[in-house]
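Field reference: sequence -> structure
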Amino acid sequence: MFPIATQVLTVASEVPYDILIYGWLQIHDLCQSSFVERSRQYERSFLAWETVRKVRNPFFVEGTGFEGYYIGQVQSPEEVVERLLQMGHYMLRSNYRLYRFDYAFRSRLMKTLLGEISDPKAIEVWSAQFGAALGRLRSNLLTNAEARYFQAETYLRTSSLPTIHYQQNHYTINQEYVVPTAVSPTSARSIMGLDTLKPSDYEAGVVVWSIGKFGHPLVREYIGERGISVGVRAS
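Structure field:
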């Protein structure tokens, strides 16, 4: 077993869809501190995801976060890209089938994914797609010991990390968190970028590159709180 990392990388940014979340808290007169505390249940999985995405990616210098599930199944970064694009195309086709004639909402789906707008229904749809994709990949862990080991190692490395620090700045919510920088020895990793994709694969690439933000603790807590308030919890 590799030693646990002691050095960390600090990440500072705005919380995804923070203005929407802040507005939701104000409208429903909810305390931000208690909202944050309830979201802590999702932090460990989010920090593990970010660790794989940013510093412990087995195939790329920086990837999507999904790559750990493909260890033991593929042999090259090119094969991983192919699998990721297949996933992205699948999610796009699913959305197109569900909202075949709702062209306005299909536009809102992509704009919300890109962070250009914050449509609550679109956030719930992408969150459900993200959860379903993870569910399909996790089912493969039952027969993939190498991927199971990688996942266990990642969670072990992130188990002692501090919690995410949030700071409200007017209508926005800023965050700061750390991920371990020490990684296990790997072969030379590739650089993956959307600009290298064929035009027909570009939107699928955007999906798999961007959808991980729907696993953010505050986004997940927002979806849960919103689902309770309207009588429907997002899956």
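Note: The two ends are 35 Å apart (CA to CA).
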